[in-house]
Give the backbone structure.
Amino acid sequence: MDAHSQFAEPLLRQDGPLALYIHWPFCVSKCPYCDFNSHVRETIDQSAWCAAMLQDMAHEAALLPHRRIGSIFFGGGTPSLMPPSTVAALIDAAESRWGFEENVEITLEANPSSVESARFADLAAAGVNRVSLGLQALEDEALSFLGRAHDVQEGLAALDIAQDSFARVSFDLIYARPGQTIEGWADELHRALSFGTEHLSLYQLTIEPGTRFATLVARGEIEVVDPDHGAELFELTQRMALAAGLPAYEVSNHARPGRESRHNLTYWRYGDYAGIGPGAHGRRGTLATVRHRKPENWLNSVSRNGHGCQLEDPLTPAERAREALVMGLRLREGVDLEALAKRCDVDPETLISRRRANLLESYDLVLLKEHRLFVLPKGMLLLDRILAELVET
């Protein structure tokens, strides 16, 4: 079996719109909290990278025929460092190979530096219609702590440009930072909600293994926020965002009704998505795909094999059902257990522990209503523990 045929099993499912994830792995610098697949390189051969991305996409398109793209997401790394001509080439190729659903959502993650915001008009002209802006904080001291290159003034200037350039705008903030008070976060969040964006991603700071922050925590140089204080901050976040008309539709994501991220909903609803670029993951029918993580290894694989795929793992019905539950229970809408069981071809009685679900329900952590299971707002604070109780691993 040659290298190409190893990754050439045809897709089993042919229904529904397809999501496309494109990973651009390069950053100007590595943030101390980040465990994403991001790398700093002095030089990048832009023409070679564009050609390789197009080749990797062509491989996925050949294995995913008769589908239409519902959403594209350029993630990273820092995709706003991509030349707009490369972004345009990838969007055009995706439309040519698959075709687009009406009102296709095309999102690009961007850093709010003046250099990158100067490209926003060109990125919009390339076809990007939604931007996710990494503001991360609205305090200069906090931005310095988080290792961000921009200050608040530069970030808000970029937000203004983004709102003028793109049809839809979201931005990220990180809270539960060391030393952050309830009053301080309330003031910061109030300001964030005043900008009028349709979507906010509000994440608690987590210390991920292998990051600079993990090293500093181990040395005692950073104090992790007390869980009870984190819970207070989380509950405040939910209340304030809801009052402003941006309810949480997922644990950390808030949107005006109808303005949720369609791309991320594909993940959480366990739809098919193709992933290209270094380290990108995908779900192609019953297969889990993983690209080579290191940029140079991915580039060599594309040159050698015509694609950057490192692994394709068949998923059993039980594995798919577990994945779908773990993703779907993050959503306010919950999971239809009967529909999920039918889709994954498993016995619905094996999906969750009913006894544990009833116990969690008695504490107002979950709600099992007919055949739909919801994690209630109180339970979202304990989501990882609840999933471990409900879902057999």
Observations:
- Residues 1-14 have pLDDT under 50 and may be disordered.
- Residues 46-63 form the longest helix (18 residues).
- Residues 317-390 form a domain with the Arc Repressor Mutant, subunit A fold (CATH 1.10.10.920).
